[in-house]
Structures are given as structure tokens and as C-alpha cells.
Amino acid sequence: MDVLRTKSIEQSLADTDDPEYQLKKQLSAIDLTVFGIGVIIGAGIFTLTGRVAAEYAGPGVVFSFVLAGICCGLAALCYAEFASTVPVSGSAYTFSYATLGEMVAWIIGWDLVLELMLGASVVAQGWSTYFVTLLDELGMSWPDSIGPAATSDFSWHVNVPAVLLVLVLATLVTVGIKESLRVNLVLVAIKLFIVLFVIIAGLFYVTGANYDPFVPPASDPLESTGLTQPLIQWAFGLEQQTFGVLGIVSAASVVFFAYIGFDVVATTAEEARNPQRDLPRGIIGSLVICTVLYVAVALVITGMVRYDRIDPDAALATAFQDVGRDGFATLVAAGAVAGLTTVVMTLMIGVVRVLFAMSRDALIPHGFGRTNPRTGTPVRISVVVGLAVAVVAGLTPIAKLEEMVNIGTLTAFTLVSIAVPVLRRTRPDLERAFKVPLSPWLPILAAVICVYLALNLSIETWLRFLVWMVLGFVIYFGYGYRRSRVGRETALAERPGS
After folding, report:
1. Residue 164: its pLDDT value, please?
2. Predicted structure pTM score
């Protein structure tokens, strides 16, 4: 069984001209940058920043964001090289197919489906919570029986706001990528305005004494046991430290996940007007902008409130309440609603493009991915993804599985980083508009960092991930391997007289 058969770069590029599986090239560098910002900046900027400062690093969380941004930037460089060299929909799935083989590509595609669909469902529930909070701030109310509380456990109640959001966004995604990004542009502009307003307004309430000490002295490590402990702790006895220099490093492994999402930009490679130039700009540009914003918010929060008095659940809102600006809590909630809307939409676009690429390769039913001539979008996939995300977000306590998003992402990051030097060696003739500097050392470093971060996830997350992978292998060997276009074309070429 040739499970490591590869799909040539030339064939991947030729597939983009198939009229039945052709996406419209409409996206500019600005569109791609906004796309990246839209998915990276979510509720994390309003909550995660304060929680990590309070529990891990104090004001030194600024260094954690810079460190995490650099680590994530290494993976971003790898994505930028691949996306500009192979501007085809599917992101890490397509890159892996050309370098590491079909089964690895399937693993990556299956991981991305897990990452993006679960991510969209989790964020939709988070959006529902902020939406209800915003209504409360405006003097209105939403019934608990059909609100976010309905999905705190398995029940027959429906989280109606989450379902409505997903269905509206699924309709928009089906209509077209350009139309989706117009809405995305407006919402990202609102989100950035509110974030910048909060940063500037917060500067007036910063007290220098709150920065002393900037790096609090080291404290006891976090305690965790059983299946909830990180795999690295169970295997090697390494515990996450709090405060001090090691606390900054531990915090970096936590805030790393605030950057997850830039890779979704690569899923739209086939729809970029000038992918060789614009994709690296979109991927790296969005990451740099978000790093600057995260650092600025971290400085404001820890300057307004001493790190050991920060509310880890609603850091920004309570920071302004502490200085007598209760009305700003409404603004924070509005920013979160706008911010999470763009995250859900971008994640849904990402999973649709990954499934589209897998369908075009016949690893899932071939007809599933046909595009509509008028909209230029794979309508069937868009509808199915929308319904699936709506059901999961509306009926299940999916937030309990949010670490599954992280492990799927880190697996994809690792394999893409490994694939860069592999493609350099196997296809040195390819024209590369963007190259990762110091290859293979930087890609190898990126892979090592991603593996380390994955090992910091809990044992129960790894067990769930293994179950998901077993299900994926059953589908691949039961359907994908036998129906694969690459496999059928290879078998045809090897027949006598062909």
C-alpha cells in the first residue's frame, strides 16, 4: 500500500483551472491581512491577557507575548514560503500532500477539520455569552433557557444566539468570499477601534507603582494531577512555573494560543490575486499587528491594576470599573461581540476550503466540493459545515473540549515546518517568491517549539486526539485510500500499454 504517494506541485496548480472546482481570485494583500487579524484577535485580548498576568507572569507577560509572537512567527514564515510557492486552497493539507505523502496530508486535513470546526463552535458559544452580556449592559435581557447557559451541560435546550450567528455567517460564506470579507472588514475596523480606544483611554489610568516588580519573584508551580496534568509533566516531571523568568516562559506557552488562526489565511491562497506577493504579506503582517496590540493591552491592564488584583475572568472590564469607568464595560462587550463574529466567520471559511481541497482530491466524495458558477464557492460544503457548527454550538458543552483546537493546530504547524526543508531538497527547481531564512534550522526550531507546546497540553486532550485520529484512519482506509485521484491516476499510469 503506497500511503505516502505524493501529489505533484504541477498537478495541484493545474487543478485550480478545473471549471467545476474553480475559486474566484479576488483577494488583495489588505484583504488577507484583515482576514488574519479578524481570526487572531478574539476574546483573548479582553480576557486571556489579564488572566495570564494574574496567574503566571505579572507585568512580565509583555515578554511572554513577544516570545510567543516570535515562536509563532517561525511557523508563520514556513506557511508564507509554502503558500507563495503552492498557492492552492487547503493550507497545510495541500503542502503536506506535495511533500510528505497522502496519508500525512490526510492526517493534516483531518486535524484542520478538528481545529477549525471545533474552534468555530467554541467561539460561537463565547460570542453568545458576550452578546447576552452586552444586552444586559444595554438594559435588555435574554432568557436563560435559550441562552449560553443552555449549553453548560448536555441538554435539550438550544443556545439560540450561537445558532443564529452561525446560520447567518454560513449564509454569508456561501454567497461569496469577497462579500464575506467586506463584512469582515467592517467588523475588524470596529474591533480595532475599540481595542485602540481601550488602550489609549487606559493609559490615563496607568500607575507606575503597579509595574513594580515588573517580573515578580518565582512562586510555586501550578498543581495538576491525573488526566488533567500536562503530558510533559506526567512523562518527564516538568511542571509549569509561576512568576519569575520560568513563569514568563510558562506564560508564553499559554498565550501562544492567542495567536492561533494566522494559518487560516493560507487556506485562501487560491483566491488571492497575487499569491506570491500578497500571501506572505498577509500572514506575517497580521501576526506583527496582533503582537503589537497584545503587548499594548498587557501594558495597560497591568499598569491600571496591580497584577495580583486583576480579575482573571474579565480583566479589561473590571480594570475600568476599578477606576470608576463602568460605562467602558459596555464598550468592551461590544468589542468582543464584533471580534468574535469575525473569528467564527474566518474559521468557517477555513474549514470549507480544507474540505474543498480534500474533495477535489477525492479523499472525501468528489462531487461534494463542486463550486457554484455564480458565487464561486463550494455551496454544498458551506451548507454542511454551517449546519454542523450550528448543531455543535447550539446543543453541546463544546467549550470543555477547547484544548482539542490547540492540539490540532500544533500538529499542523509541526508538519508544515518539517515539510519546508523536505520540499527544498526534493524540488530545488521551484520558484519561491518568499523563502524562510536559515533553512533548515529555523523550520526545525519551529517544529521543536510546536512539539514542546503540544506536550504541555493535558493527558485527556491527547487521549481525545488519539480517538479522533483513529476515526480519521478508519475513514481514510475505508474510503479515501481507494477513491483517491492520485492513487487512481498512478494505477492507470502503471498499467501495461498505458
Report:
1. 94
2. 0.87
